[in-house]
Every structure is written in structure tokens, then in C-alpha cells.
Specification:
By secondary structure, the protein is of the alpha/beta class. Helix content is 55%, strand content 14%. The radius of gyration is 21 Å and the shape is elongated. The protein binds NADP nicotinamide-adenine-dinucleotide phosphate.
């Protein structure tokens, strides 16, 4: 890919640009003009160009990333005309391939979902459908997960929301340790470290279910088991499940509009 256009320079696409440059992408990055201060700052830091219109971005870019909010998509779509077959990677949550095809006739559309860790090339990168060029473009931002169909992709979007929720859970755990007297920095290191331990072990043992890995630790008579008994009697997982259902409902409702 020689050039990449960004339609909608916002929180997520800014991090994607950071990650792309960090991974060594040296091609042209062409930015849409709206949100001028952010676009100018990004251009200065990462050698991007801010163009005068969305259509100029479309005309000069080989591939496009669209990163506006869902409600802003119709307006953006009305402002541009893509080349037949031009690849458009959409990170717009809840807008399905059929809706993208109507909004951008003739374009070759792929959906993607990432987290802010894209700026460190450490995001989960969900993609649908499988597409070699999209995978080459976004793969450097983290770990690709190619979803078989859009139902699976909506679930991947719920998983992307979990990324945000985890921070609040981790904050609460850190806060508990701090309230008990640990310096905040140490509390943070212990919470993140123990989470990282869990992730490392789980990734190295893909044949073991996550539950089995936990059960191997929380054996009868352990302190872990004592705490787990309390967790299992309080509806924490039910609350997380309810949050997932709300998000999935919202995504499916939008894709039916
Ligand atoms: N944030 C996340 O964690 C995350 C994660 C995964 C996916 N997403 C998806 O990514 C998309 C962007 O989210 P965000 O949080 O990055 O939003 P954001 O910060 O609000 O960025 C959206 C950007 O699009 C610009 N924009 C709006 N209409 C435009 C138009 N017609 N032409 C060009 N630019 C236009 C906005 O400019 P103005 O400020 O001038 O309106 C803003 O700079 C959403 O669809 C969301 O579903 C976000």
C-alpha cells in the first residue's frame, strides 16, 4: 500500500496513525480536514498531509479508513465518491457491509474493530470479511482475528467494548489495594502484573479452557478458592453479561436501520 486516506480524524484513527508509523509504514497518510487542530498535530508529528476536502482524500489515497461516528456516516458518504473497487476499511461500529455498500457504491468495504492499543501495535484487530489487503494494512496494529461473518463481527465489537470495561474493573481492584494502604503505583503494578501473568499463562496453554486454568489455581483449601466462593455468590458475571447484551442489542438495532 502506497497511500492511506483517513476520513474522520478522531480518537481511534489518530491512534491507528501512531501505530502505523510506529510499525514503519512510510507511505503517504492523507487526512480529512475536519477536526483541524487534531489533524494538523498528527500531520506534524507523523508526516501526514491534511487535505482540503474529503473528496481530495478519496482521490489521492489508494486505500481509505473511515473513522467517523455512526451518526456522521451519511453526511460523510454524501460528500465523497469512491473509485470502483477502492478499498474502504470501516471502523464505524454497528454499520454493516450492506449499509456501507449503499453509502459508498462500488467500493470494496471491509469492517474492522480495534482498541486504543493500536497506537502501540498491540490491539486486537477484528476484521470481516477476510481480505488480504486489509489484513496487510491493519495487521501491524496488533493481533488479527478474522471473523467468518458479520454476526461474529458484532460479537467482536462487544469484545472491543470489554476492553474499555476492563479498565474500570482494574481501577476498582487497584483502589481496594490502595485503600488498604499500598501506594497507588505499587497497587497498579500488582493488579496489572497479576493480570499479565494470567494472560501469559492462558496464551501459552490454548488447549486449556480459561475455566480449567482458574480451577487449577483455586483448588480446595486455597485462599484463592475462599475468595472465589464469594465471587460466585455475587452476580458480577451476570452484570457483565447484561452489559454485553445491551451493546449487542444496540449494534444489531443499528444494523437493521
Ligand atoms: N473510540 C473507540 O474506542 C472506538 C473503538 C472502536 C471503534 N470505534 C469507532 O470509531 C469511530 C470513531 O470513534 P472515535 O471515538 O474515534 O470518534 P471521534 O473522536 O468523535 O472522531 C470522529 C471524527 O470524525 C470527524 N468527522 C465527523 N464527520 C465528518 C465528516 N463528514 N468528514 C470528515 N470527518 C468527520 C469528527 O470531526 P468533528 O470533531 O469536527 O465532528 C471527528 O474528528 C466510531 O464510529 C466508533 O464506533 C471507536
Amino acid at each position: 500500500m502506497r497511500s492511506l486516506g483517513i476520513l474522520g480524524v478522531g480518537e481511534l484513527t489518530e491512534k491507528m496513525v501512531h501505530g502505523l508509523r510506529r510499525s514503519g509504514f512510510a507511505g503517504a497518510i492523507l487526512l480529512s480536514p475536519r477536526n483541524a487542530a487534531r489533524a494538523e498535530a498528527l500531520a506534524a508529528e507523523h508526516g501526514c498531509q491534511v487535505l482540503t476536502s474529503n473528496q481530495a482524500v478519496v482521490d489521492q489515497a489508494e486505500q481509505l479508513i473511515v473513522g467517523v461516528r455512526p451518526d456522521a456516516l451519511p453526511q460523510l458518504a454524501s460528500e465523497v465518491r469512491l473509485r470502483p473497487g477502492q478499498r474502504l476499511l470501516s471502523v464505524v461500529a454497528g454499520i454493516n457491509l450492506e449499509q456501507l455498500a449503499v453509502a459508498f457504491p462500488g467500493a470494496s468495504c471491509v469492517r474492522a474493530m480495534l482498541s486504543y492499543s493500536a497506537q502501540y501495535n498491540a490491539s486486537t484487530v477484528a476484521i470481516c470479511p477476510a481480505d488480504e489487503q486489509a489484513e496487510q494494512c491493519l495487521g501491524p496494529l496488533g493481533k488479527l482475528v478474522v471473523l467468518a461473518d458479520e454476526s461474529a463481527f458484532e460479537l467482536a465489537t462487544v469484545a472491543a467494548c470489554m476492553n474499555g470495561w476492563f479498565y474500570f474493573l482494574l481501577h476498582d481492584l487497584q483502589q481496594w489495594l490502595s485503600d488498604k494502604g499500598l501506594p497507588a503505583e505499587q497497587a497498579r503494578a500488582l493488579v496489572l502484573g497479576n493480570l499479565q501473568d494470567c494472560i501469559s499463562a492462558a496464551q501459552r496453554q490454548p488447549e486449556q479452557s480459561l475455566k480449567a486454568l482458574g480451577e487449577a489455581i483455586a483448588t480446595p483449601g486455597t485462599f484463592t478458592a475462599d475468595g472465589l466462593a464469594v465471587l460466585m455468590h455475587q452476580p458480577v458475571s451476570a452484570t457483565w453479561g447484561a452489559a454485553c447484551e445491551v451493546v449487542l442489542d444496540g449494534l444489531l438495532t443499528r444494523s437493521r436501520l
